[in-house]
Specification:
Layout lengths: L1 E3 L5 E3 L2 E3 L12 E3 L2 E7 L5 H9 L10 H10 L7 E6 L7 E9 H5 L5 E4 L10 E2 L4 H14 L4 E8 L3 H10 L7 E12 L4 H5 L4 H14 L5 E6 L2 H17 L1 H5 L7 H16 L3 E8 L2 E11 L2 E9 L8 H14 L6 E3 L9 H4 L2 E11 L4 H32 L4
Parallel strand pairs: 8-10, 15-16
Antiparallel strand pairs: 1-2, 2-3, 4-5, 5-6, 6-7, 7-8, 7-9, 10-17, 11-16, 11-17, 12-13, 13-14, 14-15
């Protein structure tokens, strides 16, 4: 029997009937080399098994930690109903080996083609969680899950290009169809937190650092300047409130994109941050002048990597650079943290601020992997993605030019 669920995906006996592909009844769970692969509703994934996999993952991805991903799925505007590709070690489901949240290509990109897209809502990194000890088995099982969901391929946007997971996925794709396709490869700012803070900030130059110290002194005209990066629940929630208020009062609020402006997004970030705090996976940064909070940020953590998720600051104090000031403080704190080796800025390539502060780089790309697709079908999917990307880049450049002419912040 074919059912249409309330998320716009067709489900046939537990399989997704993706646009562009004739649905065929099939088993929801299938065995491959002793493994079990399946696709289920994201909120139906057993949380204990998910947490256990996150703790032993081959690569970090805080955005796929259950405390974060479940909050997004429950609350974020327009992002409910995501599915999860799962790989288990045995029919008894004693150990989860792989997890990747996905949606259909139509749901994610409005492309009527039979492939899946790694879920991206508030996830600027889509590196799957794969068992570090059984990474190749996990990668093969994940592509089996893609095929058994009725898809010919899977797209992972903003994947860490040279990491162990990407390499395992390429190995797993060998022999399943055409060679994987890398698209939109670029680099974004990364902090090497294994070095001393002074060494990390040295590339800013003596003159720039001197100017920032002068601005910080001016920031202290109305009271002593203080910084905190906390996991204390009460202080962290107060800091999150300050962040939401600052973000809504600035240019994001004026554009209508601040998290606090949509009830679902506000509920997501409150629940997600609270859950990550309880799991020891989040910190809230605040910069204050006297009693007045002038900057705030959200830092997530997974394994030995930090993630600079969001920052907001009092834009009326722009002459004192509160956004840069809190970034320098966060940099010093992460470099002094023995549990952190690096921090991902999750920023766009060539970001005008963070690229000058964090000088290491993380290579990311969109990786399209075959899951049984023939050459013609795979080429159709890849061509459609390339055309869509080109159109979006053209439109984005046009908007930036128009805003620049109007003197509006890009």
């Amino acid at each position: 029997m074919t059912l249409i669920d309330n998320r716009g995906d067709t489900v046939v006996s537990g399989r997704l009937a993706l646009p562009g592909m004739r649905a065929r009844p099939g088993r929801r769970v299938a065995a491959a080399g002793g493994l079990l692969s399946e696709i289920v509703d994201l909120l139906a994934v057993p949380e204990a098994a998910w947490v256990d996999l996150a703790d032993r993952a081959a690569e970090a991805n805080a955005f796929f930690h259950p405390a974060w991903a479940r909050a997004v799925a429950r609350h974020a505007e327009g992002h409910d109903g995501s599915r999860a590709l799962l790989v288990w070690d045995a029919p008894a489901r004693t150990r989860l080996l792989a997890l990747l949240p996905v949606v259909s290509a139509w749901r994610a990109l409005k492309l009527p083609l039979p492939f899946l897209v790694a879920w991206q809502a508030y996830a600027p990194l889509t590196t799957p969680l794969l068992d570090a000890e059984r990474i190749d088995e996990a990668a093969r099982g994940l592509l089996d899950a893609v095929a058994r969901a009725g898809a010919l391929a899977v797209l992972l946007p903003r994947l860490s290009e040279s990491g162990a997971v990407a390499q395992a996925l390429r190995r797993a794709a060998a022999g399943r169809g055409p060679a994987p396709r890398i698209m939109d490869a670029h680099q974004r700012a990364l902090l090497d937190a294994t070095q001393a803070a002074d060494a990390a900030l040295e590339p800013l130059g003596v003159k720039k650092l001197k100017e920032l110290r002068r601005q910080r002194n001016r920031l202290g005209d109305d009271g002593a300047v203080s910084f905190a990066l906390t996991t204390d629940p009460e202080a962290a929630i107060a800091g999150l409130d300050a962040f939401l208020s600052l973000e809504a009062s600035g240019w994001k609020g004026a554009r209508g994109t601040a998290l606090a402006q949509k009830p679902g997004d506000a509920a997501f970030v409150r629940e997600g941050v609270a859950g990550m705090l309880r799991a020891g996976r989040a910190q809230i940064a605040t910069l204050a002048s006297g009693e007045r909070v002038v900057g705030a940020g959200i830092v997530l953590r997974h394994l030995r990597r930090g993630y600079f998720f969001k920052i907001a600051y009092d834009e009326t104090l722009a002459k004192t650079s509160p956004g840069v000031q809190i970034t320098l403080d966060i940099t010093r704190a992460l470099c002094a943290d023995p549990g952190i080796d690096s921090a991902d800025s999750i920023a766009v390539s060539q970001h005008p601020m963070i690229d000058h502060v964090w000088r290491a780089r993380l290579a990311v790309c969109d990786l399209l992997l075959p899951a049984g697709a023939g050459r013609s079908a795979f080429l159709t999917i890849a061509t459609a993605l390339a055309a869509r990307h080109a159109a979006r880049e053209f439109a984005r450049a046009a908007v930036h030019r128009l805003r620049s002419l109007r003197g509006v912040r890009p």
